[in-house]
Amino acid sequence: MSGQQSASLSPSEPDYTLREYEATPYLDTDELPSKARETVEREINGGSGSDKATRLLLEYRADGRARLRATQHIGIVALPKGPTVEIRPKIANTDLLGLLKYAQNIDARTFEQETQLAGGARFIDALAMLFQNELDHVLTQGLHGSYSRVSRTTDHLRGRIKVQQQLQRQGPTPTAFECTYDELTVDTTVNRAILYATTILQRLVSDPDLNRALRRHQQQLRRRVELTPVRPIELESVEITRLMGYYEDLVRLTKLVLQNVHLDSLRVADRDSYALLVNMNTIFEEVVERVVSELATERGWVTTAQATSTRLVSGGHRRIQIRPDVLVSDGERARLVGDAKWKRDNPAANSREPSPNDIYQLVAYQVAHDVPGVLFYPEQEQALRSTYEVRDLDSLTLVEVPVKAVDGRSLLTTIQRGVAAQLPW
Question: Which InterPro entries match (predicted)?
């Protein structure tokens, strides 16, 4: 139950299940000890630069008790000597698997168990299911290798002799050779990253069949690849060549895992402290960017994501930039500007959408580009779908983006048709 402790616990069951922005009860230091609180502040919310973010809030009372409040990040958190908390999307029955596939631009291959995760799935299981399917595809095609320069002592001549070492180690009547040569290996950075992500997900999933599939793949990889932590930045220099094009979707998912996981060590099996949290705002923005781009392409138009400009105001001591989520152009002039808002209209909780600030923000984008504007929200049974008339400007339309499939169609088709029917063009 949302915000309540589970009746029985197993290693895969959370102590608390929350939706975005919900909170646990206030907990004393036995239930939420100082080490757990430090982990939230230093590890989960820590980091530097773009990695630093408030993923999980700590709220204190005067008596020293504290509670955990979810933000827009969904996933799972296990704190040392503290509770395990699962965080789900605020929109009930969101098709997480479908949204991840669409947001990450994953090929629409269908696979066994996909329908079981279509609605209301745990985020970790949805992500792991998608990852496992892509990993299975790569392993079926075969691991891609690259040549690496090695230096070894061999019993036959191979490559080039390292003359100085040959004379020092082997003497005038050698029985071995000090050689340097290029060797084809699959123990590469990208394969190590995939193995590391596989290991993380295998230890966190709750579905037993999925756990077994990931363990099988992990064992298969470990026969040829070293298990070692890999940082996301190490994948930035990896080039997906034409020969390894079948890796593209899996590498994209591997980056998603490594960029959002927080571990105290590689020994994930201990389950002492770990977190895998993904920003739903980012996922929804990526969904909106993709659907608008695909629909604009059908008209021969171009979509720019996060289009930064200084068109709104000029002069002054500071440059004032604006950056809408999507800007559509026909090559000569702008046609539409839009912003994605992963928000739910909830009057009972004193949360009404659209907020005045969201309207003001989009109107500023419209003024800058002189085009119709669109605010994209997750579907809410047409509670938000409407059009505003803005004085001396084009219309401002509220569009609801489907987050679950309907009428037996795929979520991809549902999103495209649903959004296409609402756009003001």
Answer: McrC (IPR019292)
Please, which residues bridge with residue 378 across strands?
A: 401
* Per-10-residue mean pLDDT, the chain, length 425: 40 83 96 94 75 87 96 93 93 88 76 49 85 95 85 75 69 76 88 96 89 96 94 89 92 93 58 84 97 97 94 86 96 95 81 89 96 96 90 95 82 92 92
What strands lie across the sheet with 396-401, from one edge to the other?
Answer: 302-305, 326-329, 334-340, 373-378, 396-401, 386-388
- Classify residue 149 as exposed, middle or buried by CB count within 10 Å of its CB (0-12, 13-18, 19+): exposed
Q: At how many degrees (to 10) do helices 208-222 and 123-141 cross?
A: 40
3-state secondary structure of 67: strand
Q: pTM of the predicted model, to two decimals?
A: 0.82
Query: How far apart are alpha carbons 340 and 289 in whole angstroms?
Result: 9
| Spatial CB neighbours of 248, under 8 Å, sequence gap ≥ 6 | 240
> Which H helix or E strand runs over 101?
helix 96-103
- 289-to-102, 214, 413, 419 alpha-carbon distances in Å: 10, 31, 15, 12
Sequence-distant (6+) residues with CB within 8 A of 245 are none
The C-alpha atoms of residue 33 and residue 82 are separated, in whole angstroms, by 7
Task: State the CATH architecture for 281-420.
Answer: 3-Layer(aba) Sandwich (3.40)
Contact 394, 366 (CB under 8 A): yes
Per-domain residue ranges of the chain? 1-88, 91-144+196-272, 146-185, 281-420
b/e map of 310-341 (b: 16 or more CB within 10 Å)? eeeeeeeeeeeebebbbbbbeeeebbbbbbbb
A 10 A CB-CB count for 19 gives: 17
Cα dist. 321→310, 327, 356 in Å? 5, 14, 20
